[in-house]
Amino acid sequence: MEWRQQTSLSCADAFNEAQRWIEEVTGKLFGCSDFRAALENGVLLCDLINQLKPGIIKRVNRLSTPIAGLVSIRLHTSAI
């Protein structure tokens, strides 16, 4: 991990800063303290992209099923 050699910032600090920024941009809380778990269904990522570029993701699948999460992640990655 080259970036770790260039900074004194720990992974926990980086996750906390990313979480703070995502919550600030989206206006929504993670809902849990686990960074990965909060993002794995893709809904918050889609909301983030729509805040940065409004309307790019037309419909966010907010169901809490694994397939819905995969669809949301695919929408997020295709929008980038």
From TrEMBL:
<dbReference type="GO" id="GO:0003779">
    <property type="term" value="F:actin binding"/>
</dbReference>
<dbReference type="GO" id="GO:0030155">
    <property type="term" value="P:regulation of cell adhesion"/>
</dbReference>
<dbReference type="InterPro" id="IPR029978">
    <property type="entry name" value="LMO-7"/>
</dbReference>
<dbReference type="InterPro" id="IPR001997">
    <property type="entry name" value="Calponin/LIMCH1"/>
</dbReference>
<dbReference type="GO" id="GO:0023051">
    <property type="term" value="P:regulation of signaling"/>
</dbReference>
<dbReference type="GO" id="GO:0031032">
    <property type="term" value="P:actomyosin structure organization"/>
</dbReference>
<protein>
    <recommendedName>
        <fullName>Calponin-homology (CH) domain-containing protein</fullName>
    </recommendedName>
</protein>
<dbReference type="InterPro" id="IPR036872">
    <property type="entry name" value="CH_dom_sf"/>
</dbReference>
<feature type="domain" description="Calponin-homology (CH)">
    <location>
        <begin position="12"/>
        <end position="80"/>
    </location>
</feature>
<dbReference type="Pfam" id="PF00307">
    <property type="entry name" value="CH"/>
</dbReference>
<dbReference type="InterPro" id="IPR001715">
    <property type="entry name" value="CH_dom"/>
</dbReference>
